[in-house]
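User: For my dataset I need records formatted as: sequence, then structure tokens, nothing else. Please produce one.
Assistant:
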Amino acid sequence: MLQYAFPLLAVLIWAGNTVVNKLAAGAIYPAEIGFYRWLLAGLLFTPFMLRPVLRNWPAIRPHLGKLVVLGILGMATYQSLAYYAAHLTTATNMGIILSLMPLMALALSIAMLGQQLTLGALAGAVVSLLGVLLVISNGRPDTLLSHGIGRGDAMMLVATLAYAIYSVLLKKWQLKLPPLQMLYIQILVAIVGLLPLYLASPKTGLTATNIPMIVFAAVFASMLAALAWMHGVARLGPSRTALFFNLLPLFTALIAAAALHEALALHHLLGGILILGGVLIAERWLTPWGSPQPAKTAT
């Protein structure tokens, strides 16, 4: 049972961090917490990781360009947009929208990796899209035609897409490097990449209110959750571990209700069910597109 505890812990921490993103709105500027988070994580990792990375530099150097792309997408872009989105939408919405990531990654795998298009991918995309429309329109999809999508939800959709691209590139490139060394280098990339935004943005400064948020994001969300997820992948495999990501919107909604007193409305429940249902359809219904064979499900 211990192998299941690792991905569960990672998803629980990431759900908590989505709520911390919302708590940070008003307590610290997005550019500040985005930069400080990775700076602290980098400082904490450096005593343990700098020497191994330097020793392994001949193997790392040929992949440095790819690691820079991964760091910009997965660390800098994704999390920075999430901090900005937290100023404009709810933590519950953020968690539900983030649950689209596996389906986005599947669609990108079909486009970028030549993965077989399945009936499940098509049906799941339609079902999940209905769920997203329900959530971002607050239960009234017809209002999107007149008012459009909210900026916060739009930012979260772009952030989720950035992380989906990150996930697909990891699979496409399959870099033969130690995972912790890859994580450390990507953190350093995020620090450098976010420095200009930090310098150009207004600043609140470090306070007794926002320092715990930075520490949680750096230590728990950036380090502990990543290590727990790696252990989960090593014990369960990537596909089985990825299924735990589907618990993210549920955990986020529960934590947001307790910590932020966000009301879980009917459109959140229905939208979340549709999104997760679409993801499961895509993952389980594997009949190839155009195949005359009867549908079958994965076992």
